[in-house]
Amino acid sequence: MDVDNLTANQSPPAPSKEHPLPPPDTQHISPTLDIAGQRTGSLADELRLLSLEAAAERYLGSSSGLSFAKLTQTVLQRLSPDQEGFMFDGGVTDNQQQSCDSDPEPDPLSNSNSIFFEMNASLTGLLPLNSIFGNPVVEDFEDSMGLALLDPSHINSLLEFYFAHSHTLYPFIRKSEFEAVLWRIYGDPLDPLAQSPLWQFRIWMVLAIGSTTYCSVSLMDETEPLQFFNKAMTYFEAAMGCGDLAGLEVLMLQVSYSFFNKIGPNTWFLVGVAARMATGMGLHTSDVYQTLAVDVAEQQKRLFFSLYMMDRVVSLALGRPFAIQDDDITVEPFANADDANIQPDGIVAASTLEASTMAVPLHILALRRIASDIGSQVHSQNYSKRQSPEAREETIQKLHRRLLEWRRSMPFPLPDLQSKVPHL
């Protein structure tokens, strides 16, 4: 269908009982014409027209594509398609670093012809995500919410829920460092780290994840986690501009939140975008880690394999293909060591016989890998067609033996958690 001809050459029907006049604010049906009769509306105007006025009424929910466009726009800004191999930028520019160390300010539109920029500026802007989705639970979002307004005991309980559940499954946040920064900002709101959009996003998202986890157990109202999530999203774009690894962490925090709360982009989409970012940075290859300090390499491995486990959980639950293929992964999993024992020049041996905090996450990773092989070797039609009945039976028996060995090698004793939380 030719949209230009449809909007430029057809006149609207005369008003009648069947076709009453629309409200005054919805009568701008087509872009204006200049003196020569040429259309002056941009492609963004046409997309806006189709998205907002083609339906019976205006709707800014998730199905309108606005949240998709907003997140995609942010990720696409980080791509450099003119570079060899379509890789992500390797570092953070001076301007980006400055924005990560100071208060986020509205940046001027660097590309006025960008469709996503125009849609973002005119439709979404810096509104909290909740206002875009029109969620009735939280009608008034208070951007003035501060960390110091929360009770310390309540913060501790939310942190306990986060690190007992999400951190055990996806350990990409350094607990000791995170808690130190949180209480430092709590005690001094003017601390330089309080001006970092990345740290602000981390803190509010961890609180949101801990709160929504608690609500899923206690069946309480979701008002508080939505408030924390909306607060975090005010720092989303600035945090995404703090570097590739920071952007990946930002998306993965949203994935953790989406496991328990459906506000925002869906989990499948978020995992897919995060997987593309990770593979674009080469986090799945061992070569990337060879020149890094040991502590930096271990943190990036935790980040990648946390994403791997997220991908396996979501893909197997939905019956969809994996975003990260096992055959493409050449990097070894993260070390079975506590944060305090990981130094820039090496890993210090533990002084006690107790299992490290990474023992359980590594054991869960082993289970995800077995589940991945079950999905690709047993339930894959193409793989099964190439196997004889005898070979297929041998594959099943081998996987069964791996499951038994996984059960026998479970870390002992397991951590004694005070918070009874669900595990995905």
From TrEMBL:
UniProt entry keywords in alphabetical sequence: DNA-binding, Metal-binding, Nucleus, Transcription, Transcription regulation, Zinc
A GO molecular-function descriptor: sequence-specific DNA binding
Protein name (record): Xylanolytic transcriptional activator regulatory domain-containing protein
Stretches the record annotates as Disordered: 1-31, 88-109
GO BP, sorted A to Z: DNA-templated transcription; positive regulation of transcription by RNA polymerase II
Pfam families cross-referenced by the UniProt entry: Fungal_trans
GO cellular component, one term: nucleus
Primary localization: nucleus
Locations listed in the record: Nucleus
Domain Xylanolytic transcriptional activator regulatory: 267-340
Cited SMART domains: Fungal_trans
Provenance organism: Penicillium cataractarum
Keyword DNA-binding included in the entry's annotation: yes
Entry-linked InterPro entries: XnlR_reg_dom, Yeast_MetPath_Reg
Record carries keyword Transcription regulation: yes
Matches recorded under PANTHER family: ZN(II)2CYS6 TRANSCRIPTION FACTOR (EUROFUNG), ZN(II)2CYS6 TRANSCRIPTION FACTOR (EUROFUNG)-RELATED
Taxonomy, superkingdom: Eukaryota
Biased composition (Polar residues): 1-11
